[in-house]
Amino acid sequence: MVRYLKSKGVILDTVTSEIIFADESEISDYAIEAIKLLNELGVMGGVGNNTIDPQGQATRAQAAAMLHQIISSFAAEGRERR
Q1: Residues 31 and 38: beta-carbon distance below 8 Å
Q2: In Å, how far from its chain's centre is CA 69?
Q3: What string of H, E and C letters represents the secondary structure of the chain?
Q4: What is the CA radius of gyration of the chain?
Q5: Under a CB-based contact definition with an 8 Å cutoff, are residues 25 and 53 in contact?
Q6: Whole-model pTM?
Q7: What residues form DSSP beta bridges with 78?
Q8: Contacts 24+ apart (CB under 8 A), 56-62
Q9: CA 50 – CA 64 distance, rounded (Å)
Q10: Cα gap 58→63, rounded to integer Å
């Protein structure tokens, strides 16, 4: 999702806080920054018990909720394009 937003020219803030999940060590290196950014933006909050299940698969409902949150956040905030 972060790569898509960047490809569309959406300006994303850099991650300013450290989000620590109990299973953070299972997050692939290439995905850490994107997951932290999506978490900070309120798009991705984990699956409960302070976990994110990085090796699991998102359900259709979870994917729809993330897309809805992205669309709602960026439409409401009027994020600029580069």
Answers
A1: no
A2: 10
A3: CHHHHHHCCECCCCCCCCCCCCCHHHCCHHHHHHHHHHHHCCCCCCCECCECCCCCCCCHHHHHHHHHHHHHHHHHHCCCEC
A4: 13
A5: no
A6: 0.69
A7: none
A8: none
A9: 21
A10: 6
CB–CB of 8/80 below 8 Å? no
Better pLDDT: 22 or 39: 22
Amino acid code (one letter) for 82: R
Distance separating alpha carbons of residues 26 and 53, to the nearest angstrom = 8
Q: Which amino acid is at 9?
A: G
Q: Which residues pair with 81 in a beta bridge?
A: 10
Residue 62 pLDDT greater than 80, yes or no: yes
**Would you state the structure tokens that stand for residue 3, as one six-digit string?**
């790569």
* Nearest C-alpha neighbor of 38 from the set 19, 56, 23, 51: 19
Amino acid at 78: G
